[in-house]
Design goal:
- Helix content is 0%, strand content 42%.
- The protein is built from no helices and nine strands.
- It starts with 10 loop residues before the first strand and ends with a strand.
- The chain has 111 residues and is mainly beta.
- The mean pLDDT is 89.
Length: 111
Amino acid sequence: MPDFFDEEYEVITVPAPVGGVRRGEFILVNKLGGVAEHGAEEGEEVEIAVEGSFDFPKTEGAIALGAPIYWDASAKKVTSTAQGNTRIGVAIGAASSEAEEVRARLDGYIA
């Protein structure tokens, strides 16, 4: 796993979701999402980066450079499919169908 936090990012503090969170995982709290800066047990405070560029695990299917990306909460991966998912940012790298990850830029808020 790359070291996401070598640079400074816009971070906020939120309660860790049900089941807790590990460092580097994306979490969604209502309509606010970010990448966990450290691990935390359920309900504990955790800092999340709400802006910045990260490598995310992705569902099947290609994702084009510049395409909006969405969080598939059931798969815990990003997808290019809008229906039933929450928009979190934009792809800043292309990913083939076979790729397991895509580099994306978080919007800083969830619309």
